[in-house]
Amino acid sequence: MEPIQDHLKEHLDVVFVGFNPSIKSSETGHHFANPNNRFWKILYEAGITPRKYLPEEDFTLLELGYGLTNIVARPTKSADEITKEEYKQGKEILKQKFQKLNPLIVCFVGKGVYQEYSGKRNISWGVQDTSIVSGTIDFVAPSSSGLVRMNINDIIDIYKELPKLIATLKVNNK
Fold first, then answer.
1. 45: how many CB neighbours lie within 10 A of its CB?
2. DSSP tally for the chain: helices H, then strands E
3. Per-residue confidence (pLDDT) for residue 174, from 0 to 100
4. Domain with 45 in it: what CATH number?
5. Cα dihedral across residues 34, 35, 37, 41: positive or negative
6. pTM as predicted
7. In-domain check, residue 28
8. 30 is known as an active-site residue
9. First to last CA, the chain
10. Is residue 133 part of a domain?
């Protein structure tokens, strides 16, 4: 199984960070490609994208100011297969990416992703009190996996905070 390409560039509004690519993502070469994953639906219904994108269009999010990456590059069937060493390496690689690319917000797609990245255990949804990389805002949203038992409308409501946060930050940075 091959890792999939990050879609990143400098000064993005939001970089979405997943655990790692699924088998389906590895096979297709696109982020959030598993048909049971609701990422693309959530982005659209939360007002983050103007329409529901397909996984094959993942690279076009860059045009909207959004990027995609993972804490671990190795594809697996489930996140349970990721080793502590892979998380440790992934955390350092992410920090370097964010220091270099300076995104406005880093949105962790799942509390578990942020727990591995930050080392923190008690995490609330949304903006975190402190960020790991200075100059970026850490934002934690629910996983988009179909395995998550949280109500989809509640998940979407949390993601709806991102466009509001972007607008506020851009007004304050003028």
1. 18
2. 7, 5
3. 63
4. 3.40.470.10
5. positive
6. 0.96
7. yes
8. no
9. 45
10. yes
